[in-house]
Structure formats: C-alpha cells, structure tokens
C-alpha cells in the first residue's frame, strides 16, 4: 500500500484490494487507492481499464467482489444512497441530470441527505418545514452562484448547453455537502476554454475543503490539477505517484500508445506480425 | 400600450385579401347567428324543438353561442374599443377555432337530424342557410392569417396587461369561476346525447380558442397572483353546485365524478410524481369500499359491527395502506414494465379473491359475487346523509349531502397532493421518475420513497372508497375491474391522469370529469367505448402529449422552442413581488 509523501493526516478514502468480477471477467483487480483531505487525485487509464467500474465500487452502485472501501475510517455500505449520506458525492460519465426538473430543483434534490423533513412535515407545513425549505433554497442558490448557473435556475436541465449540464451535475453533487467528490470525466466533450473553466471550478471546490477524485482523459487537465495520480490498466493499478513521476513512466506511455513494434508492419521477414 | 408584435403569420390556407377575408367571416358569423332564429326542421321528432321560427332552441342555442363568440373574437382582434382585452395575442387563430367549432356543432346537428329522421328532406331552408353560413364563416376564417402552431403563439410573451386594481382582478377570477361552473353545469344537465355532443364540440374548440387568444395565460397569471382567493373561489364554486340543482339526478353524477377524480388524483401521486405505472390501482379503492361496507352495519355484512363514520374512514384508509405496503414491498424492487404487469395482476387477484370469499370457495367474508348490499346511509350525529336536510334557506338532497362530504375528501386529497408534491419528498419522487440511478446517487433511498408513494396513493384511494361504498349503497367485485364500461376502473383512472395531464392537480380532475360524462351522456358509445378511448388517447399522445392541462415542467419539455427561451417563472415572480 503506497502512501503519498505529502499525506498530512489520516486518509479520507481508503480502498484496499478492491476487486470486481463480472462472471469470468475481472474488471478491477486488487486496486488500492487512498485520498487524503484537500487532495485532488487523478485516476487515468486507457478506455476499458476499469476506471468507472472502480468508481461504481466506491459509490456502492456495485458491491465489490473482494476488498473494502472505508471513508473517514468507517467501512462504506454497498448502497449508493448510504454512501452519499456518508459524504461521498459523484457525477456520471454520461450526464445523468433530472432532465425534466429545473436547474434549481436538480440542486435541491442534491440536498436530500442533508435535510430530514418527511412526508408528515410536508403535509403539515410547520414553521420548521418552511425554515428547512428556505435554507435549502439559499444553499442551492449559493451553489448555483458558485458554478455560474444562478441566472438559469428556472430553466429545465435538459435545455442547458452541454458544458452547463456538466457544471450543474457538479453543483448537484456538491449540494449533498460531500467531503469527497468523485468526478467521472468532467471535461469529456468540452472545448479547451470550457475545460479551463472546469479546472478553475475543481480548484475552487478544493479551496472549499472538499477532496476530489477525478477520472479524466485530458492529460493537461490531470497534470495541471492533481496532487497525485494513479494509472489503471486492464483493471490493475500500474503506477501511482506525483504527476511528474507518472508522466515520465515508460509503462504509462506504453499502456496508452503501445510499445514500438519489434517488426514494423510491411516487414515480411516475420509473417506473424508479432505486436505487443 | 404598444401594439403587440404579431407572431410571424403563416400563409392562410385560402388566399384572399385580408379585408375580404374579414368581411366574409363577419358576414358568415352574423348570418349563422340569424339562421338559428329560423326553423331547421319541420318535425318535433328531433329532440330540442328546432321547428320554431322566432327564437332558437336546443342545439341552435349552441350554434348561436358559437357564432356570437366568433364575431366577438374577430372584433377583438380588430382592436375594437372595449373588446381588446379579449385577444391579448392579437392572433386570428382563436377566430378560426371558434368558426370551426360553430361549423362542427351546426353540421353535426344537421347531420344528426337527417340521419335520425331519415334523409335531407327533414331539413327546412333555415337548416340549409345555417349550414352554408357556418361554412362561409370558416372559409373566411381560414383566409385570415393563421398561426399554425398555436401553442407557440400562446407562449410568445404577451404584452404586460393593463394594471387593474386588486378588487377588479379578484372580480375577474370570480367571474371566470362562475362562467366555468355554469358551463360545466350546463354540460352535466344536457338532457339528451345530441345536445351533449354539440356542447362537447363547441366547448372543445372554444377552449382551444381561449388558449390561442392568450386569455388562459392572462387568467393563470391572475390566479398565480391571488392564489388563496383562487383556491377559495374554486371551492365555493364547487360547493355551490348542489344549490343549482332541484333534483338529485345530476348531483349523483357529480358525486361519482368527484369520487372518480379523487381516485385519479391519488393515482397521480403514484404515476405522475413517482413515475410508477400502477395498472391495478382500482383495487385500493375496492379495499377501502369493502372495509367500509363491512363495518357499516349493513345487514349483509358478515361482521355485524357498526363503526361511526370517522372510524370507518380511518379503518378503510388504514386497510388500503396495509394492502399498499404488502403489495408494494415485494414488487417495487421491479422497474418499469415489470411493475405494471405485477400491479395489473394484483388488481385482478383482488377482484377474484373478493369474489371467492363467500364461505364456499373460501372463508365467508364478502358474500362473493353478490357483494355487500344495503349499506346504510351515513350519519354524523343527528345529521343523516340519506334524508333531505334543511340548513337555513338551503335544502340539501341526499346526494347533495354526499356531494359535500366527497368534496371535502377531494379537497383533502388536493391538499395532500400539492403539499407532498412541492416538498423534499415530492422532489425525490420526481427525481426517481427521471433517473432512478442518479437519484440514489444523490442519497435518495429509492425503494423506501417508492413505497411511500405507493402507500400514500393506496391510502388516498381507500379514503375515497369508504365514501363510495355509502354513495353506491352496495359493493360488488365487478365494480373493481381493470377495464369496463363504468368508471372508475384501473384503465380509466390511468386514462384520466394521462388525458388531463400527469403531475398536475386540475388535469386528473378534468380528465376524470370528461371520462365519466362522455360515456354517461353518449349512450350509443357503450359498445365502442374502449375503442373510442383508445383512438382518443392515441390522438392525444400525438398532438398533445402533455395532456389537456400541462404541467409547467412538461410544457417546457414538449413545446420548448429550439433556442433556450426565457422561462415563464421569473415573470410570474416579478408579478407577485
């Protein structure tokens, strides 16, 4: 189990030996990962490396076949809503907003775990209910200001442009007041300008005291932001360390680009065309 | 006020200069109105007596109303002083709709006369004149610049209304409710099927015209502003209905409509908010009704106990709640289609089980197919619902008593729906409907909240069932089928929710009223009822997928212009502040 050199305190999230098998296919094999408070940790790897599967194991969408995930020292139950209650929020690789709810309502749904008013309170509408609704709305508006969506609060989520939908998903996740935010390819499909804005947003989230674990293919994004990067290849953790270490590791380059062929194509001396 | 920028007019269907088109429409409408004072047929065999020259009768009155409305609407689009407020959009579309409505009503009348009495020979010259004049009006109206997508026209921002003092606005709301009540009362009171068909045709087109003219938008802005007054006005208008009736004949119909619409609203919690397709919902109504019947002290009840009304209501609602949880707990882990199939099965199981609990094929509880007859009238203290009651000047017939009781139940259900829907729980339901995986990732316990919606829906249906048992005096298993000629049944309940508008309050109420009245009034439909509803639903899904009364959210969903438009909500806020 590698610990990062700049780790100041007890880990926020600790995954140990997480393995996920689907029948005969092992999508994630014995992955260890720790995230410390105030860290931005990147998770990279080629397509199909098992990054999203690993995320789903962390957030309870999948129950890992083996291994444990602890958050602030307590083991996480394999139920998504309990994971969110514990303090881990996530976004999805393919945007999953509540498309037919307004922007504000989307963020209010994110507040679900931080409010308690049940059906009876809603029917009786006591002063406490009104207070809780007001607080929720204020908090949601703060987050919309933070992500720059405040003036679109009454739009339907489905009508937002792509980049803003991504931002809204982040705002919705932040509404659950997480200690750790998991972002699954937050800049996929964005233009360079939008990507830079998202970078700023992620840094601002860290400023607010939330640690971030991010899956991303945009290497510039990863190496600009992350304190720590882990590389996942074919379900296994290949390398882990500071961006510089990872960037210069030959195995990472090989995983992404492949190794040079010993017999380049067109060379008829070896008909098997043996490539790695 | 600055003149409204008209929405880009499409080319009219009939190319004519504008002045000629206007003149044609005006002349046609006036002529149609005049023709209703002539005799349309020479025999009194057709109901409504259309043989009198000098004053209109029966269906002629509808044609007259249609023609006059067309005329008024056309004048309003011309900026006629005093009528301008009738056409905020300044669009010609409402005129076209009204002309089409008049044409439909008139031609329907004439065709009905010819078909029923055997041939065109039964028409008087007045009838021919009416047919020609109505056609002329529509031809003229079609030559007017026509807005092809009226929903868009209605959504282009209207010019701000002239500021009115608060009392005037309240008066307008009151007048609108009085108008709605009288139209509805007229519809319920139509004495024969032909008149009801004519009424349905005209009101259908007139409603479309109201939307296109922007009057509905104006009115909803007002009701939004004076929310409490609107709710009170709606309640008073509804409570005033029995006072307009001398006999119980139509009050019974309205009680049944209320029961039907209340159950539809309960189903709307399950389907509209939480997105759970429940095809066996009527079973919960049955549970409530059977429970109330068993504890009503009926001689046929196998339990010889007589609960006071409040206890019976609580027992009925509680029994439905228990059934809801028992059915929901194992099935709500299923999603989508599977849930629909399981609930469909449950609905049938309920009916068959109740039919078998007769002491022979099962324990003796429900008298099997014979049901529980002779359910006594309700009595709260000395107030017996089954007798005429005098309160001051007001005499309330038996069904008027039940009507007022049912109205209270409806108000309660409306309150529960609106309060639950607009809360943390309601948002969680909608989130589950939208994307269950994302909802659980937001910390929502999907199963628990779905069970809550299911149980709440069941409780509300059970509540309505307790009253239904007393109104119908008897409960039999065949009342609670999946699809049948008499509403409420599961298919009709779902149709009422979808037809009216999912996730709204007024939608299911209106949908249920229509689905109850149409088969009750149009006896000849009996055999083709399900066919007709199938076709009607398909047409509705094609042309107005959000239902008659769209949810604000769904209206945005289905009719959003391609660019992100300015949302209506901030405007409404500005008006309230």
Automatic annotation (TrEMBL), chain A:
GO BP annotations listed: D-alanine transmembrane transport; L-alanine transport; L-isoleucine import across plasma membrane; L-valine import across plasma membrane
InterPro entries: AAA+_ATPase, ABC_AA/LPS_Transport, ABC_transporter-like_ATP-bd, BCA_ABC_TP_C, P-loop_NTPase
Keyword entries, A-Z: ATP-binding, Nucleotide-binding, Transport
PROSITE patterns referenced in this protein's UniProt entry, alphabetically: ABC_TRANSPORTER_2
GO molecular function list: ATP binding; ATP hydrolysis activity; L-isoleucine transmembrane transporter activity; L-phenylalanine transmembrane transporter activity; L-valine transmembrane transporter activity
Xref: Pfam families: ABC_tran (PF00005), BCA_ABC_TP_C (PF12399)
Taxonomy, superkingdom: Bacteria
Cellular component aspect of the GO annotation: plasma membrane
Sequence ranges assigned to domain ABC transporter in this UniProt record: 13-259
UniProt-recorded name of the protein: Branched-chain amino acid transport system ATP-binding protein
């Amino acid at each position: 189990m590698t610990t990062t050199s700049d780790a100041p305190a007890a880990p926020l999230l600790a995954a140990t030996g997480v393995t996920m098998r689907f029948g005969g296919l092992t999508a994630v094999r014995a992955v260890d990962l720790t995230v410390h408070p105030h860290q931005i940790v990147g998770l990279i790897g080629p397509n199909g490396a098992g990054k999203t599967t690993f995320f789903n194991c962390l957030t309870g969408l999948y129950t890992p076949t083996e291994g444990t995930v602890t958050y602030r020292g307590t083991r996480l139950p394999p139920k998504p809503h309990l994971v969110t209650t514990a303090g881990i929020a996530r976004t999805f690789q393919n945007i999953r907003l509540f498309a037919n709810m307004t922007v504000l309502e989307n963020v209010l749904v994110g507040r679900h775990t931080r409010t308690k008013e049940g059906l009876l309170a809603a029917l009786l509408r006591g002063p406490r209910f009104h207070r809780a609704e007001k607080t929720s709305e204020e908090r949601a508006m703060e987050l919309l200001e933070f992500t720059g969506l405040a003036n679109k609060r009454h739009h339907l989520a489905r009508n937002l442009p792509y980049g803003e939908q991504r931002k809204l998903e982040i705002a919705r996740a932040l509404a659950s007041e997480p200690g750790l935010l998991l972002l699954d390819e937050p800049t996929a499909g964005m233009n360079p300008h939008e990507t830079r804005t998202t970078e700023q947003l992620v840094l601002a989230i860290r400023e607010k005291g939330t640690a971030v674990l991010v899956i991303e293919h945009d290497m510039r994004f990863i190496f600009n932001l992350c304190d720590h990067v882990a590389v996942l290849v074919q379900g296994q953790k290949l390398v882990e360390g500071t961006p510089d270490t990872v960037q210069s590791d030959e195995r990472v380059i090989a995983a992404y680009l492949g190794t040079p062929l010993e017999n380049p194509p067109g060379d008829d001396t070896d008909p098997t065309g043996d490539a790695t | 006020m600055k003149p409204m920028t008209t929405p880009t007019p499409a080319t009219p269907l009939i190319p004519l200069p504008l002045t000629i088109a206007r003149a044609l429409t005006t002349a046609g409408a006036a002529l149609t109105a005049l023709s209703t004072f002539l005799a349309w047929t020479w025999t009194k065999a057709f109901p409504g007596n259309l043989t009198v020259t000098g004053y209109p009768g029966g269906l002629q009155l509808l044609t007259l109303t249609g023609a006059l409305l067309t005329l008024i609407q056309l004048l309003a689009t011309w900026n006629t002083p005093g009528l301008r407020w009738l056409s905020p959009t300044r669009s010609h579309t409402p005129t076209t709709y009204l002309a089409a409505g008049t044409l439909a009503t008139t031609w329907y009348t004439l065709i009905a006369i010819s078909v029923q009495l055997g041939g065109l020979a039964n028409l008087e010259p007045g009838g021919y004149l009416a047919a020609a004049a109505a056609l002329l009006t529509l031809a003229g109206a079609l030559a007017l610049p026509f807005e092809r997508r009226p929903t868009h026209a209605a959504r282009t921002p209207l010019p701000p209304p002239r500021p009115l003092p608060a009392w005037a606005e309240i008066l307008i709301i009151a007048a609108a409710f009085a108008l709605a009540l009288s139209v509805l009362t007229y519809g319920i009171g139509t004495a024969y099927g032909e008149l009801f068909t004519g009424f349905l045709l005209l009101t259908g087109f007139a409603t479309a015209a109201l939307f296109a003219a922007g009057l509905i938008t104006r009115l909803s802005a007002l009701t939004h502003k004076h929310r409490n007054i609107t709710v009170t006005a709606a309640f008073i208008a509804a409570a005033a209905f029995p006072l307009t009736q001398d006999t119980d004949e139509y009050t019974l119909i309205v009680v049944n409509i209320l029961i039907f619409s209340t159950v539809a609203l309960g189903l709307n919690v399950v389907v509209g908010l939480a997105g759970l397709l429940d095809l066996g919902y009527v079973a919960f109504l049955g549970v409530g009704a059977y429970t109330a019947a068993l504890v009503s002290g009926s001689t046929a009840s196998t339990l010889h106990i007589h609960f006071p009304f409040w206890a019976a209501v609580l027992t009925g609602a509680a029994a439905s709640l228990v059934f809801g949880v028992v059915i929901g707990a194992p099935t709500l882990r299923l999603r989508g289609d599977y849930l629909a199939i399981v609930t469909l099965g449950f609905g049938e199981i309920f009916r068959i089980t109740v039919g078998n609990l007769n002491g022979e094929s099962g324990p003796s509880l429900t008298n099997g197919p014979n049901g529980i007859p002779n359910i006594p009238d309700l009595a709260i203290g000395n107030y017996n619902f089954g007798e005429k009651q005098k309160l001051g000047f007001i005499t309330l017939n038996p069904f008027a008593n039940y009507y007022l009781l049912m109205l209270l139940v409806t108000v309660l259900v409306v309150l529960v729906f609106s309060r639950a829907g607009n809360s943390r729980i309601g948002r969680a339901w909608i989130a589950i409907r939208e994307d269950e995986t994302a909802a659980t990732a937001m910390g929502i316990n999907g199963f628990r909240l779905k069970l809550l919606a299911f149980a709440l829906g069941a409780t509300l249906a059970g509540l309505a069932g307790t009253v239904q048992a007393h109104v119908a005096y008897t409960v039999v298993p065949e009342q609670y089928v999946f699809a049948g000629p008499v509403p409420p049944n599961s298919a009709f309940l779902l149709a009422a929710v979808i037809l009216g508008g999912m996730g709204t309050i007024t939608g299911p109420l209106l949908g249920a009223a229509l689905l109850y009245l149409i088969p009750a009034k149009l006896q000849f439909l009996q055999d083709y009822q399900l066919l007709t509803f199938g076709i009607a639903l398909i047409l509705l899904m094609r042309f107005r997928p959000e239902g008659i009364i769209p949810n604000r959210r769904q209206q945005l969903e289905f009719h959003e212009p391609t660019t992100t438009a300015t949302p209506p909500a901030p405007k409404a806020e500005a008006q309230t502040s």
